[in-house]
């Protein structure tokens, strides 16, 4: 499919709306606001899972590892710093099962990958370790850790969104909104 059918991602707010609609493939289960979050703990299967309050402001603070029963209080605190329409909730990925994560883009000379294997949220992980791979080395690294479905989808994202960076996390298990994917695509943004 041609990239002509897909608009570039120019703002984080636009990205989040399209992300929640599933446009970019496998992602974390996500709710647009606290009001959209299902608070019936026992009957909806959310007890024992962890969540994070994310931000539509690029680079802004994220509240990690929250239990469902902590979300309401933390949401109120977050709203003291940011307008509520700039916040949203996602389920925490199995960060402890991270095998590779990073940011990758397709440049005229091939793939350019900034990556880490540190099993922490990406911002924290990059502060501890950040490596780079280009061209064939980047492709081999991605193919080594991503399942075939995830790697194929990454290539589709590059076809649809040229000149974009794709932020991802790959796990030792399948996880996310789509079955048989071991990679979550956290962000697609124009560079």
Question: Notable features of this structure?
Answer:
191 residues, alpha+beta, 2 domains, five-stranded antiparallel β-sheet, four-stranded antiparallel β-sheet, 29% helix
Task: Please explain how this structure is put together.
Strand 2 and strand 3 form a beta hairpin. The strands form 2 sheets. This protein has a 5-stranded antiparallel beta sheet with strand order 7-6-5-8-9, sandwiched between helices. The chain has a 4-stranded antiparallel beta sheet with strand order 1-4-2-3, covered by helices on one side. The protein has 191 residues and is of the alpha+beta class. It is built from 6 helices and 9 strands, in the order H-E-H-E-E-H-E-E-E-H-E-H-H-E-E. It has 2 domains: 123 residues; 62 residues. The chain is globular, with a radius of gyration of 17 Å. Helices cover 29% and strands 29% of the residues. The mean pLDDT is 94.
How many domains, in number, for the residues?
Answer: 2
What level of helicity do the residues show?
Answer: 25-40%
Number of helices: 6
**Helix and strand pattern:** HEHEEHEEEHEHHEE
| Main beta sheet | 5 strands, antiparallel
Span of the ends, CA to CA: 21 Å
Low-confidence stretches: none
Which strand order do you get reading across the main beta sheet? Answer: 7-6-5-8-9
Counting DSSP E segments of at least 2 residues, the number of strands comes to 9
Principal-axis shape equals globular
Q: Strand portion, in percent?
A: 25-35%
Oligomer: single chain
Mean pLDDT, to the nearest integer, reads 94
User: How large is the radius of gyration?
Assistant: 17 Å
Main structural class:
alpha+beta
């Amino acid at each position: 499919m041609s990239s002509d059918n897909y608009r570039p991602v120019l703002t984080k707010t636009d990205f989040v709306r399209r992300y929640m609609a599933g446009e970019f493939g496998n992602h974390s289960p996500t709710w647009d606001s606290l009001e959209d979050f299902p608070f019936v703990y026992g009957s909806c299967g959310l007890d024992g899972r962890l969540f994070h309050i994310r931000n539509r402001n690029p680079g802004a603070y994220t509240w990690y590892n929250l239990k469902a029963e902590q979300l309401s209080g933390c949401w109120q605190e977050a709203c003291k710093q940011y307008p509520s329409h700039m916040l949203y909730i996602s389920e925490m990925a199995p960060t402890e099962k991270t095998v590779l994560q990073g940011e990758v883009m397709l440049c005229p000379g091939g793939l350019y990958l900034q990556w880490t294997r540190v099993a922490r949220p990406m911002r924290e992980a990059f502060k501890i370790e950040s490596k780079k791979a280009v061209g064939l080395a980047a492709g081999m690294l991605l193919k080594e850790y991503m399942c075939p479905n995830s790697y194929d989808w990454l290539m589709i994202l590059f076809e649809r969104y040229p000149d974009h960076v794709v932020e991802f996390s790959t796990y030792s298990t399948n996880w996310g909104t789509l079955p048989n994917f071991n990679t979550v695509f956290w962000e697609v943004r124009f560079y």
